[in-house]
Amino acid sequence: MRQRILSGAVLVLFFAALVVFNRSFPLGLNIVVALISATSVFELVKALGLSRKWFLCGPSLLTAAAVPFCNNDFEFVVYCLFTLVVFSAMIVYHKETTFKEVGVLYSMVVMIPSALQTLVALRSLDSRHTMIYVLLAVLSAWVADAGAYFAGTFFGKHKLCPSISPKKTVEGAIGGIVVDVVVMLLCGVLFSRVYYHGEVQANYFVLFLIGFFGAILSMLGDLSFSLIKRSCHIKDFGQVIPGHGGILDRFDSVIFTAPFVYLLVGLLPLVGA
User: Fold this and answer.
1) Residue 256: CB atoms within 10 Å
2) 122 near 133, Cβ under 8 Å?
3) Is-above-0.85 flag for pTM?
């Protein structure tokens, strides 16, 4: 547990540093998201047993790394090229691969980088506050996970989805939602009164929505990728992060919460003058 907490704290501080140094090195966020995206896709390629099929693995990793640097129009072009290359490879190497393998990998390469790219897209919504949006999009997933973990450890009695993730409990899920809502509201107080010295006011209704629905989406992402791991007969996607597993083990929930936060704050601004 100590290792898990320490690793989580380091990750939170790392993303906080991206927020602080965004003005001096804005490309840092793109680079970090690209690395996370490419590593997540690679871990999935390994889980599917496709790492030796370079004609699928190579284009997938290049696409995953390129998307976080693209705007919407160029992202479409990148995916068109990816589609052309991968399906051409399937035809050329039809004796070595199947449409099922290509279909599964293709869907993941579209979903994972596109979802993570919304962390970069958040920055374009409002030049003054959007790095805080980025931090909250990540925190809403990780806080829910941490809250569910500790609530489940100390109070868990009723299994949530035992056939998918035996350790998850109903009590843990409720704890994750409650903790996420509380932390998001506290972030509003912190940003309004400390970071902005009272010059702006946080929209606490939006923060409540981020905490409540972010926690639910975080659990949905966690369970979805747990099901993928179970179907691949693996415990974790990797061992990159001590106490957590692979990059995809840590960011599976962010893949679901980040697009939600992007859509929500695009409609309902989180802070105002």
Assistant:
1) 22
2) yes
3) yes
